[in-house]
């Protein structure tokens, strides 16, 4: 979001009709504190067919909404993966397995807080066809969700798992492992695009 006009448009549009319900949901999670980032209007809201789940928004002050056009490494890589898969930003709702900002390492109990929130989010997405879990924390939360809330698993929902787009997402001392992990990320995003287009 280096373009100030684009950034202003995303911040000003966070109550646009298609993202207002999800950002009202964020307000409830915030409970009066700016600890959960809003969803940028570039993306879909509860109407999106694709839910992208990363680990957490990390620490520090909130600089803006969740958006694939942010300036951090994870956002930039995810944006390229989406483009390569032919997925429009409006088709995807970005989310975090632990949606609150944090400065201390997360405990098992902390991650558990995200379980019910993720289920509540999913229950409000009538067009959801694909959940893309990126990184081990997101996969761990999903495993607990399936155990505690089995109703979220349906025949019409595909759940894909891959490596995080973060700076350490594919890190490994063996270059061949890095290549395989990089390829897996690309393939999973392409598969998500194929599912949305009815090609899988």
UniProtKB/TrEMBL annotation:
What name has this protein been given in UniProt?
Uracil-DNA glycosylase
Species this chain originates from: Marisediminicola antarctica
Lineage of this protein's species? Bacteria, Bacillati, Actinomycetota, Actinomycetes, Micrococcales
